[in-house]
Amino acid sequence: MYEDLFYQRLIELRTKKGVSARDMSLSIGQNAGYINGLENRKGLPSMAVFFYICDFLEVTPSEFFNVDIEEPQKLKELYEEIKSFDSERLELLTRLIKYMR
What we know:
CATH class of the largest domain: Mainly Alpha
Distance between the termini: 31 Å
Shape: elongated
Largest sheet: none
Order of helices and strands: HHHHHHH
């Protein structure tokens, strides 16, 4: 059950980051085919490598498995942008978001 989620989420987050499986493998210190092997369900990473994967994808382990958040990297980026908003801008943004639903 969780294995299927891991494989699907790895493919989804890597693809959204716009990086090849080969480049990701090399970036996390593995052989060139490592991520491709994982995506083809040939094993699971160690905990240490899983944390490297999360760091590379810029997600926490919790965000990695939270499929309700489709693009956690973009959500973090948005959060960083709005942290400095004053209350008036936050209210405007809130209204815009509610309007867009």
